Amino acid sequence: MSPFVEHGRLLDGGEIRRAVTRIAHEILERNKGAGRLVLAGIAARGDDLARRLAQEIERIEGVPVRVGIIDITFYRDDIGMRAEAPEVHETRIDFDITGTTVVLVDDVLFTGRTVRSAMDALVDFGRPQAIQLAVLVDRGHRELPIRADYVGKNVPTRRDEEVRVHLTETDGEDAVVVGENVPDRMGEEERTRA
Amino acid sequence: MIKHLLSINQLDRQDVVRILDTAESFREVGTRVIKKVPALRGRTVVNLFYEDSTRTRISFEIAAKRLSADVINFSTSGSSVAKGESLKDTALTLQAMGADAIVIRHSSSGAPSTLSRWVTASVLNAGDGTHEHPTQALLDLFTIREHFPSFEGLRVAVVGDVRHSRVARSLTFAMAKMGGQVTLVGPPTLIPPEAPAWGAEVSHDLDGVLPKADVCYMLRVQRERQRQQFFPSVREYSRLFGLSRARVEALPETALIMHPGPMNRGVEIASDVADLPRAVITDQVTNGIAVRMSLLYLMLGGGRGADESSSEQASAAEEVARA
Question: What is the DSSP letter of A86?
Fold first, then answer.
């Protein structure tokens, strides 16, 4: 993994925990309970967040909520535009989503292209009554007419910055950091020079 | 990822693992109500079959269709080939029509390799003469991996008409690469003298091999390729090298029975043996689609060269941000 120059921390562990709790309350309020609710996390990180949201919803409402994982790779709009075929992750939705309200869960909302792909993937599994979107961080710079229904934190960023969400499940800590991927750019310059 | 798939020997261990891992995801796609993903929309795959094959052609066709690629089936009978067109002219014609991948089966060993030097499209070897059948070996590895945690030290008995079998060659190379041990079993006339150089052991005694086999892989007796008499009678062959019910008893309890199809029931495999739960022959067929989807995706899902459009950069940045 290439080194990453950190500009600052946007959220710490406690803030992430409180954001998840607040989003869980908002989801329940908007949908008047957890009756027809299911969660679908976008792999990697979105699925971990979806499981945390499900735990919170169950704690608050006392009913279990089903969680699926969606990998959007096959639905990307840039396949064939990169040197290598993008790496594929697991998709697992082992319940029928027809008639449910699906809350898509992702870590960072940026261009909106991932969410577009995820909605395409989702409707191949059935016809939900509604699809809503929950994200931990909305960093702006949308390229598609997509907005989130539930947002942990809105963060103004520069387009060339990167927002990284670290979660204990995969990264050993809870934090949201903003920074720049310097070596990548240096690599590019070297390639141009060569 | 590789541009062409001509032989198992082009792949290293990591390539094989990546192909099998990606195939796992496509296996899941095959269980959905809508078994189709848009990954290869706008790509064209041509099936160019100079030799009859129903299952491999259909498998590739389904694989390409489930990836949303357009599929053209070019069968040589009743086509320009029957009118005398050469392989090169046929290939150049297909390329001029915009084929992104050519899946070729040919009775001459090496035809796919030659073809790959003439065209810019990706070439996938779907069986060439008695040389190789790499996609079959990969689907066999995938099926074996569903039942065993590792290929390391796994003992595979490949039984029957090894001489005419490109499946046996590809599977032997593949297993050797992944750390398994292959024993080729058959009458001396049907084991080619160069077989030990493939990295396999050779035996002519099936009953001696079975108790130590984790996988018993039965080959079809390819009578259409046999230009001379290689064994006295089908009956004798079946008695000495056929997988009977009694021989299944000699296998370890966890051993799998595999066959690349089409089977000659009653010749190399007894009919009731082919229907046992541990005979994973139909799983091999199902997995073949997933493995071929994986290969088409990995070979065609990457670069159309250095395309530096703005949306690519945005998505690349997003991907990094997500990673």
Answer: P
Instruction: Return the number of other C-beta atoms located less than 10 Å from residue A109's C-beta.
Output: 25
Please state the rounded mean pLDDT for residues A41-68.
Answer: 95
What's the pTM value of the predicted model, to 2 decimals? Answer: 0.88
Query: Which residue in chain B has the smallest CA separation from A106?
Result: B322
In the residue annotation, B105 being an active-site residue is answered as yes
> Where do runs of H (alpha helix) occur along B124-233?
134-145, 166-178, 206-209
Whether domain B147-279 has CATH 3.40.50.1370: the reply is yes
CB A18 within 8 A of CB A171: no
Across the beta sheet with A5-11, the strand order is: A5-11, A175-180, A162-166
Taking residue B278's Cβ as centre, other Cβ atoms within 10 Å add up to 15
Same fold? B8-132+285-304, B147-279: yes
What CATH number belongs to A13-157?
3.40.50.2020
Phi, psi of A116 (to 5 degrees): -55, -50
**In angstroms, what separates the C-alpha of A109 from chain B's closest C-alpha?**
9
Question: Hey, are the CB atoms on B34 and A124 less than 8 Å from each other?
Answer: yes
CB of B136 within 8 A of CB of B170?
yes
Which chain B residues touch A181 with a CB distance below 8 Å?
320
> How far B26 CA sits from the closest chain A CA (Å)?
9
Would you tell me how many other CB atoms lie within 10 Å of the CB of residue A33? 12
A36 neighbors A64 (Cβ within 8 angstroms): no
Query: Inter-chain contact A79–B301, Cβ cutoff 8 Å?
Result: yes
Is A77's CB within 8 Å of B311's CB?
yes
Give yes or no: B177 in active site.
no
- Which helix (H) or strand (E) segment holds residue B215: the answer is strand B215-218
Interchain contact, A124 vs B32, CB within 8 Å: yes
Distances (CA, A) of A177 to A13, A126, A185: 11, 36, 19
Q: What is the pLDDT of residue B227?
A: 65
Rounded to the nearest angstrom, the minimum Cα separation between B104 and chain A is 23
Distance, CA of A56 to CA of A45 (rounded, Å): 17
B301 contacts in chain A (CB < 8 Å): 79-80, 85-86
A183/B15: higher pLDDT: B15
Q: Which amino acid is at A174?
A: D
User: Which residues on chain A are in Cβ contact (under 8 Å) with B34?
Assistant: 124-125
The reply to whether B56 belongs to the active site is yes
Q: Which of these is catalytic: B56, B90, B130, B183?
A: B56
Tell me which fold the domain B8-132+285-304 belongs to.
Answer: Rossmann fold (3.40.50)
What residues of chain B score a pLDDT lower than 50? 305-323
* pLDDT recorded at residue B80: 72
Query: Given this model, what pLDDT does residue A80 score?
Result: 77
- Rounded CA-CA distance A104/A93 in Å is 12
